[in-house]
Amino acid sequence: MPEPTSSLRRRLLNLGLASAVAAPIWLPPVWARPATGRLLPTPSQTEGPFYPLDLPDDTDGDLLRNGSVDYRQGRPAWIEGQVSDTAGVPVRGAQVEIWQCDHQGHYHHPGDSGRADPAFQGYGRVTVDGERRYRFRTLRPVAYSGRTPHIHVKVRLGQRALLTTQLYVAGDPGNESDALWRRLRSAEDRAALTIPFVSGRQGLQANFPIVLAL
Known about the structure:
Order of helices and strands: HEEEEEEEEHHEEEE
CATH topology of the domain at 65-212: Protocatechuate 3,4-Dioxygenase, subunit A
CATH class of the domain at 65-212: Mainly Beta
Largest sheet: 5 strands, mixed
CATH architecture of the domain at 65-212: Sandwich
Strand content: 25-35%
């Protein structure tokens, strides 16, 4: 006996819905696709005009002691982190440089009229240790005309400069009006370069992991 028209229509409709639901199984949704597991490279930024033309005699990781002179201005802080590639593998032999202005906003550079405090080393350079970590004792950066507080960072491997960027202070009110900070393209890029300075056993500390696109 032929199936009633209404019943046949319901069966066809149900089959159609089932097919429509089943079809996407062949194209997994974005959130279900296997993750690459790779880290985002640390964003690069301009070197700026104040990279030292002549390196100081003292270029170690303690910027608050220039030779035999102690710098006692501003707020001391430790900057540290690990250097790795995008696969999370620590980079052996990486050399990290930082440079920044003193507590009054002046650099050791002819372009800043030589007004920097001579007790402040202003530049430091270290090679990562056995755990591929670096560490600096320096000054919590301060603002100067046109710029929010920041520290310049460069990473080298042998003769190759692999990254030049800038580190910013999380929560500083000057970030939102800083042209270079605002130029960072995404929230992820800003988060990678905008680091909390928190109180620890040794004073202010900032952990700044560096990821290189080798």
